[in-house]
Input
Amino acid sequence: MCGVLGILGKMPLSMARELLLLLAHRGQDAAGLLWISGNEYIEAKAMGSPAFIELPDESPKIILGSTRYPTIGKRVGTEKDLDIFVGPFQAEQIALTHNGNITNMAVYAEKDYFTDAQFITDKLAKYLSENNNILPDAIRKLSSELDGAFSIVGIHEGKLFAFRDSRGFKPLVFGRSKDLTVIASESTVHSMIGIDVERDVYPGELLIFSQDGKLESFSISQNALHSHCFFEYVYFAHPATTIENQLVYDVRFRLGRALASAFKKMNIETPDYVVPVPDTSRPAAQALAEALDVPMREIILKNRYLGRTFIVRTQEERNAMAKSKYIYLTDKIRNKTILVVDDSIVRGTTAKMIVKDLKGLGASKVYFAATCPPQDHPCYYGIDISTGKELIASNSRKEEIRKYIGADALIYQDINDLVNAIGLKDLCLACLDGDYPTEHARYIQEQLQDEEESDSRDYERVIG
Ligand code: 5GP
Ligand code: MG
Output
């Protein structure tokens, strides 16, 4: 995932940091800001939330921001890691930050890289120097080599630019007012400062914004077929965000309605309550409750100052985190039949924990519903589920999963219902159906076909 931000027009750094907080849910590992002061790029980075970035009292004319979610390399553990792993990055004449994941970095990298963003930065600097410093030419060369997902925001010659891969995997939108241009992963950034979103950056499009208000658009690598990441709607994006003209809240609401139809077909006892697992599944739980005509009750509450458990890498850490992540309204649970709704079941840790907790608190039955269909293939484009080994649905059938999490019934979203709820045909569903839209991802899949499963990420195992 990751969040990216680009601002052209004078803005206090502290305000840019506020805007970056709107992308904090996209990357809780670390965050960074980069700006131009005089003729220099200056960076400030921090572990965890953007709120921790220390900034001078300045109002630069051009700023980049980044929140990191690791899909390559480890989590940031020390201050020293910040330079290596956390964007925005700079090389010679350019600076940039990116959201997505490059699947074939090892094929083109001239040295070992800790992150694909630094690799892209160095490559772009190289192609600029080989192409008379002409950005569209350099980007064209770069994009002909890259396989994977990339939504990039950068600075070149005092101009702000945005570039999105030809499949449009990851979101990227821009908006302008008289004095400001803002490019961001999510449209909530624009809402916050009262700028209308003009539109999504088109897949394969390079946009260059000049300080005098000029906008140039270059078609770099058009692809007739787009592959927007469906998981943005299910999990990643803020509900108030609009991606490809679909409001995420509405999509989640429709996902809940579809789950209600699936539930009704199962002919099981109507629950006393529908209960969302905070925060992502709230709109879905609301819709589900309305459709089943039972109350929704938020009896699972979150300690919202705790990080997302998913980001913790070892299973032991994850189990320990999941235990302390939720607080229950204990007196509303005894002898009740409860239908819990979460956005997804990835490794099954969260679901198992919640069912166990609710039963321990006296629930008579616990049903578990997921707004996402079973994810049984790894993602190579930016969700950190990069090996089949960690996916419960890849190794178990539905009935086994139900037993594993201890639920009395398990309701998964159907793939067609998911597609209808999102309302777009051109989606990347690779982690659901194994149909990878890019060549190198298919190559990785082929190479690993007869290999033992491993803890390392697939795209870090296959390197040629
Ligand atoms: P599990 O506990 O089954 O491994 O993962 C499912 C839980 O993790 C769900 O509650 C879901 O909200 C969350 N989740 C799913 N995908 C991601 C992700 O990519 N990042 C983070 N932080 N959480 C995720
Ligand atoms: Mg969750």
